[in-house]
UniProtKB/TrEMBL annotation:
Protein name: Acetyltransferase, GNAT family
Assigned keywords, A-Z: Transferase
Record keyword Transferase present: yes
InterPro entries: Acyl_CoA_acyltransferase, GNAT_dom, MshD_Acetyltransferase
Organism for this UniProt entry: Paraprevotella clara YIT 11840
Amino acid sequence: MKADYEIRQETEKDYPQVFKLVEEAFRDMKESDHREQFLVERLRHSPAFVPELSLVADGDGGVVGYGLMTRVSIRSGKVDAESLALAPVAVRPDRQSMGIGSALIRELHARAARLGYKSAVVLGHEGFYPRFGYRKASDYGIAFLFEVPSECCMAVELVVGGLRDIRGVVCYPETFME
């Protein structure tokens, strides 16, 4: 079955639809602080933002999905290794479970690798993200400073060996903490 949407880079005119979509997608999620839409707005104006990694699934009369990857670092002592954080991925509630979120993640990974990024991290559902290659971050010697179950803290190599010799703590930009 052919997808009835197109994945493309987000433009400024998409911002209002993305705001509403992210708000709706996380509205009933108990693990959410229900402020992801504001995080997206802050990240767009931060040095962590990579415009090429802010994608929408456009179809069915508008934006039906959104995915974002932003720069983070993995710090070991005084050495920082560049990585990306996948957050958020959102699909309009009436279009969930149709593969849109999966397609966005695959496209984000492919674009990130083409841009030269070697790895990504995610705080997410341990039953969902492994299908995209994510493993427990601790398997790589990577830790998060959040009090969440370790199985929800994951990392993936976007290229073969992308996390070789990388150990440390994921450091998110201050924008994530506001």
